[in-house]
């Protein structure tokens, strides 16, 4: 018996034998984020791939843990670097469901671009 005193069977019979069940709302997850970088010629190029974003998004970049406000809300970053320098680029993407981040770490290359 249900709380209202009617069984599910009685409700199905009242509907002519067809039961209509409402699907539970799906939980929204924060967007999926992937940072990909290439380096060569004492420079690097990193872009961020975003999927599953809901509504407007913001992108915040950080290099070696320090914010890069001049690059915020850009889908890529291109900068010069010194060969052999270790770099870690993080993109944090925020949408109406939350925030996700990804980091790509590499050593700057002075060799020609791949």
Beta-strand residue percentage: 35-45%
- Which class do the helix and strand fractions yield? mainly beta
Mean pLDDT: 83
Q: Class of the domain at 29-107 in CATH? A: Mainly Beta
- Alpha plus pi helix count: 1
- Strand line-up across the major sheet: 4-3-6-7
What gap, in angstroms, lies between the N and C termini?
69 Å
CATH homologous superfamily title of the domain at 29-107: Immunoglobulins
Poorly predicted ranges: 1-15, 17-27
Q: What percent of residues adopt helix (DSSP H or I)? A: under 10%
What is the strand tally? 7
Largest beta-sheet characterization = 4 strands, antiparallel
Rough shape?
elongated
Named CATH topology of the domain at 29-107: Immunoglobulin-like
Give the ordered list of helices and strands.
Answer: HEEEEEEE
CATH architecture name of the domain at 29-107: Sandwich
Return Rg in Å.
25 Å
Characterise the protein shown here.
The chain contains 1 helix and 7 strands, in the order H-E-E-E-E-E-E-E. The chain is mainly beta. The strands form 2 sheets. It has a 4-stranded antiparallel β-sheet, with no helix packed on it. Strands 1-2-5 form a 3-stranded antiparallel β-sheet, with no helix packed on it. Strand 6 and strand 7 (98-107) form a beta hairpin. The longest helix has 7 residues, at 8-14. The protein is elongated, with a radius of gyration of 25 Å.
């Amino acid at each position: 018996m249900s709380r209202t005193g009617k069984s599910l069977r009685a409700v199905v019979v009242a509907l002519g034998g067809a039961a209509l069940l409402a699907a539970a709302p799906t939980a929204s997850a924060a967007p999926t984020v992937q940072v990909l970088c290439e380096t060569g010629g004492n420079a690097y190029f990193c872009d961020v791939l975003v999927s599953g974003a809901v509504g407007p998004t913001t992108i915040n970049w950080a290099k070696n843990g320090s914010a890069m406000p001049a690059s915020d809300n850009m889908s890529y970053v291109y900068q010069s670097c010194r060969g052999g320098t270790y770099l870690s680029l993080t993109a944090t993407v925020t949408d109406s469901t939350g925030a996700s981040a990804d980091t790509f770490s590499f050593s700057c290359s002075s060799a020609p671009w791949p």
